[in-house]
Amino acid sequence: MRPRRPDLLSQYYAQLIQYLRGSLWYNNLMGVRPKDTRTYSDRREYIIKAVSKRRRAVKTLAIEYKGGKCQLCGYDKYQGALELHHLDPEHKEFSIGQRGHSRSWERVKQELDKCILICANCHREVEAGIISV
Asked: Is the domain of 23 the same as that of 84?
C-alpha cells in the first residue's frame, strides 16, 4: 500500500518548520534573539587590536589638528615622537593617550585646545624646566 500523500507533505512541513525555528532568519522574524555567549576572553585579541587602532586614529587626527609638527622646534618626521603637553595641568580633564580613545572627537578637540604639540625631546626639556612654554 502506498503512503498517503498528505502524510508525506505534513511530515515535510513539520521538518521544515522545525529546521526554520533553529535558524537565525526565523528567530529574527519572530523577534527571538539568541543569547550572546561570547566572553571577553573569546574576543580579547580583537578588542585589543580595535582599541589600538582607535588610539592611533585619534592621535593622527590630533596631530593634524595641532599643525602636524613640534610647535617648539618644528620636528615632523615620525608621529610616534610627537606628544601633547597640557599647558595648565589643573584644567586637564583626561589624558588623550590613555582615555582619548573612548571620547567623542568633539571632546578630544576641546582637550586638544588646552595642549601644545611638541616632540619627545622638547617635552622632556619642558618637563625638566629647561624650556618654558
From this structure: no
83 residue type, one letter = E
DSSP H or E stretch at residue 119: strand 115-119
E runs forming strands in the chain = 82-86, 115-119
Same domain, 92 and 114: yes
At 55-109, the pLDDT tens digits run 888 889 999 999 999 999 999 999 999 999 999 888 888 877 665 567 788 888 9
Cell for 27? 528567530
Regarding whether 24 and 62 lie in a shared domain, the answer is: no
Q: What is the DSSP string of 18-34?
A: HHHHTSHHHHHHHT---
**27-61 residue pLDDT tens:** 666 666 666 677 878 888 888 898 888 888 888 99
CA dist 90 and 92 (Å) reads: 6
User: What element of type H or E holds 83?
Assistant: strand 82-86
Residues 7 and 25 in one domain: yes
